[in-house]
Specification:
This protein has 5 helices and 11 strands; from the N terminus they run E-H-H-H-E-E-E-E-E-H-H-E-E-E-E-E.
Length: 229
């Protein structure tokens, strides 16, 4: 797991634009909210730098493609990775064996009754027992676990999130994800991640998470170990 701070300044975005593909530059230009394009470019560039560091190759030689279900992947599929960013920070999860998914959320996703549609019946019941002030972070915790799990299985929201129960004791455990098109059920190992104030994050993997190494990544200096668990 790699953590890095996103720098969406004009200079950083300009450097990022030179590292990404024409398609990614077009995607950035198509984003509506001011500043989202710069953040997107910086995130894609940072992902290339992290994967380049992991694989021992130039970031410019890190090539992306899409899986059959639309998941971002390496052309050579040498490792599986997942990316999420919020609150000015970015997470890049890398798995040498199996598939991985990660998500991080801040206050951009605000709990409301309409979002109950993303929760199982039991999750909704527990949430409604909380005080209104406590519901937001509890909901975000559930949401990040669901997104991480759905990204790990590679189907995204083709799997209805209200069919994935992510109530976990101590923030860690195995989640059953029903796959679309009668493909069965995948067991995904999900774990909450320590993060910065005001955000919540989770990682999921299709294999047991026996070792989780966290690194702080700086484009100028590379990766520095933070901790392992």
């Amino acid at each position: 797991m790699f953590r890095t701070r996103l720098d969406p300044s004009d200079r950083a975005a300009g450097e990022a634009a030179e590292l990404v593909s024409d398609e990614e530059r077009a995607m950035a230009e198509a984003l509506d909210r001011p500043g989202d394009g710069r953040v997107f470019l910086c995130a894609r560039a940072t992902t290339r730098r992290v994967l380049g560091w992991v694989l021992g190759r130039s970031p410019a030689k890190v090539e992306f493609c899409r899986s059959i279900h639309g998941r971002l992947a390496l052309v050579d599929r040498e490792v599986c990775f997942s990316v999420a960013y919020a609150g000015g920070q970015q997470l890049v999860a890398v798995a040498l064996n199996g598939a991985v998914g990660v998500d991080v959320q801040d206050g951009d996703v605000t709990y409301g009754e309409s979002l109950d549609l993303a929760l199982t019946q039991w999750e909704r019941q527990l949430l409604r027992r909380l005080s209104p002030s406590a519901r937001q972070m509890f909901f975000l915790g559930l949401w990040t676990r669901k997104e991480a799990a759905l990204r790990a299985v590679g189907y995204g929201f083709r799997v209805p999130p209200d069919e994935v129960d992510v109530l976990l004791e101590d923030g860690e455990g195995v989640v059953a994800v029903p796959l679309p098109d009668g493909a069965g059920v995948a067991e995904v190992h999900v774990r909450d991640l320590p993060t910065w104030p005001g955000t919540v994050a989770a990682v999921a993997a299709t294999g047991p998470v026996t070792d989780l190494h966290t690194w702080v990544f700086n484009p100028a200096m590379g990766a520095v170990p933070l901790h392992s668990c």
